[in-house]
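pinned: reference chain
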Amino acid sequence: MIQPKRITDNFLSLAAIDSPSYGERKMADRLTAALKELGLSVEEDGAAEALRGNAGNLFARLPGTGTPLLFTGHMDTVEPSAGKKPQLHPDGTVTSDGTTVLGADDLAGVTILLEALASIREDGLPHPPLEILFSVAEEPYDRGSEVFDFGKIRSREAYVLDLNGKVGGAAYAAPSICSFTVTIGGKSSHAGFAPEKGVHAIAAAARAIDKLKMGCVDGETTLNVGMIAGGTATNIVPDLCTVKGELRSYSHAKAEALLDSVAGTFSRAAVSLGASCKMESRFGCRAYEISRSEPVARRYADACEKAGVQPDFFRTFGGSDANQLNQHGIRSLVISSAMYLPHTCREYTRVADMAKMAEIVRTMMLHA
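pinned: its structure tokens
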């Protein structure tokens, strides 16, 4: 059976561990021990070296009979996260002390998975082969899963417990997300005595930004320039300007076309003022869409209904490890992990919601 007391103890213990992106060592050690205690074999990959972090992705297996299924969560949390102090309230809500995030994103998901596995083990129930992936550095757009060797995974379907919102939620579609950095090189000169001898790098950047449509480019695509830096003094024509932004789209083709357009706009603006321009970009997430008729979606809907929960399928405009899984041919659904207000110091979870999601996950683990 699902045990709320065990869920509470596990979550409070995990949330108290500092586990920032690229610094998940203590969390990885704790989860390795927990998985082994539950009878799973565990291996850690070389993501630490590849990402210059201190821990790798954890991949665990529990033998069974039938078609294998994969369940995933991530070990890292966003900032501010140092010295988290989870607070359990009388109604079963858990918050931080208000000075840090709680880390329910994604430790609530991790706790749910551990509880489902524990309940199956103690009840001695037959199950299909189960695979568990706990990734590092998910928050900076799937850095950990990006370097994972997907050839190790036998499952062709997966559930990613990493979704904000009520129990029963499931994201069947997510966007491509591309981060970009534009570096514009100009020429410095004295802004008072010889401004005409300089090439104003910030002016070139501003000219480009003014020509770009920010916000909603169309009904499924957005663009944002979020950071701009340049110059060394008020009396010097700036010879360098760096611009950072991102774009998202439910259509990967549209995302690529928009990236080309952004690059061209900055290049033309730079050339028009005699400046140079260099652009670097990275697609951390690639768009995908799951049909409600696919087995991975039907299994989730059935498990929700058995738990007395109405399944709620919708599109998300955020990224997760599901983007990487789907890109590698593993049909994956992002499902609720009982976290609310993530990426803020007001983040919280509820023990009852984690217990209900553990019940749903357990049902899926038993009926592949």
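why pinned: The CA atoms of residues 176 and 280 lie 16 Å apart. The chain has a mean pLDDT of 97.
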